């Protein structure tokens, strides 16, 4: 069993020339691309980097750069004064291998993930937690120090075992983030993490750690 955070690029990398082998042939799948952005006091994009640029086709990144820059300008305010804004930008894509198409589903601001770790399932977990599969949604506040606080499971199947909820919460609490900045000062941000818990042919559940 493994716990997969769907919103992070380490789950899958995009290749426009071949389908990732972990997916059924021609089946559409989701890819999340992260960017690190800075906006000026007018709300216009001033700088943009893709931390994992080497994982994606240059043409795709140029397309995403243009789409991010074209978002309606909405300057942030520090008090009543327009201010610069530094943030991660999450781009959700749907890739359809059969047609070779890539669709942009959503572009949104979010604290940028710097490091992902995993918490191991414990020996005393209830037996039902070893076989349960499904999705959960975790939510947390990202502090100015880049840590998750007040982690909650905000949605998911009603029958999610308590042990799995706790593992999901502890996992997110261990991640590290680049805090968003307003007028050059770090501010708290909100993070929502959809996760899947799936069987992977092991007798006991484990978590696979990934580094962003």
Please characterize this protein's 3D structure.
The protein has 212 residues and is mainly beta. It contains three helices and 14 strands. The chain is globular and about 50 Å long. The longest helix is centred in the last third of the chain and has 13 residues. Strands 2, 3, 6, 7, 12 and 13 form a six-stranded antiparallel beta sheet that branches. The protein has one domain: 2-Layer Sandwich (TolA/TonB C-terminal domain), CATH 3.30.2420.
Structural class determined from secondary elements: mainly beta
**What's the CATH H-level homologous superfamily?**
TonB
- CATH fold call: TolA/TonB C-terminal domain
Rg is 18 Å
Helix count? 3
The residue-averaged pLDDT reads: 78
Low-confidence stretches: 6-23, 201-212
Span between N and C termini? 21 Å
What is the total number of structural domains? 1
State the helicity in percent bands.
10-25%
Name the features.
four-stranded antiparallel sheet, 3 helices, 42% strand, 212 residues, disordered C terminus, TolA/TonB C-terminal domain, six-stranded antiparallel sheet
Helices and strands, with pairings:
Layout: E1 2-5, E2 29-39, E3 45-49, H1 58-69, E4 76-78, E5 81-83, E6 85-96, E7 101-110, E8 112-115, H2 127-131, E9 134-142, E10 148-156, H3 162-174, E11 176-178, E12 180-182, E13 185-187, E14 189-198
Antiparallel strand pairs: 1-14, 2-3, 2-6, 4-5, 6-7, 6-12, 8-11, 9-10, 9-14, 12-13
